[in-house]
Amino acid sequence: MGNLSVSCVVEDDTAVLVLEGELDLDGAPEMDRWLRQAADVIPDPRRLVVDLGRLAFIDSTGLRLLLQANARAQEQGYEFVLRPGEPSVQRVFEVTGAIDVLRFEDRPAG
């Protein structure tokens, strides 16, 4: 089992959570804390971006957390965006249909 490491960078009105490792049942409680805390530290208008680029694995628990975070963002009026992960990670979003529910953006150049 891999570990999940999360770092947060705040840029203007955007918090970017960078995930590394595995977002699964073991990492879910920590990820949930990060998602909730990051949304609270950004002034309006606010965006929460989750960067999956260094994620090695995501399971249904991790997917559920991201879907819940997206729903919370809609309820609370801020933008929730994902930056794509490796093909094996993206495949989870594709086969579940979550790719049609969640918003993805490209990583900024540089």
Give the helices and strands, then pairings:
Elements: E1 4-11, E2 14-23, H1 28-41, E3 47-58, H2 60-76, E4 79-83, H3 87-96
Parallel strand pairs: 2-3, 3-4
Antiparallel strand pairs: 1-2
Helix pairs in contact: 1-2
Descriptors:
4 strands; four-stranded mixed beta sheet; alpha/beta; 37% helix; 110 residues; 3 helices; globular
State the oligomer.
single chain
Gap between N and C termini: 32 Å
Strand order of the largest sheet: 1-2-3-4
Bulk shape: globular
Largest sheet: 4 strands, mixed
Q: Assess the beta-strand content as a share of residues.
A: 25-35%
Mean pLDDT, to the nearest integer, reads 92
Number of strands: 4
Q: Provide the gyration radius in Å.
A: 13 Å
Question: What structural class results from the helix and strand content?
Answer: alpha/beta
Flag low-confidence runs: none
How would you describe what is shown here?
With 110 residues, the chain is an alpha/beta fold. The chain contains three helices and four strands, in the order ββαβαβα. The protein has helices spanning 28-41, 60-76, 87-96; strands at 4-11, 14-23, 47-58, 79-83. Strand 2, helix 1 and strand 3 form a beta-alpha-beta unit. The longest helix is centred in the middle third of the chain and has 17 residues, at 60-76. The N and C termini lie far apart (32 Å).
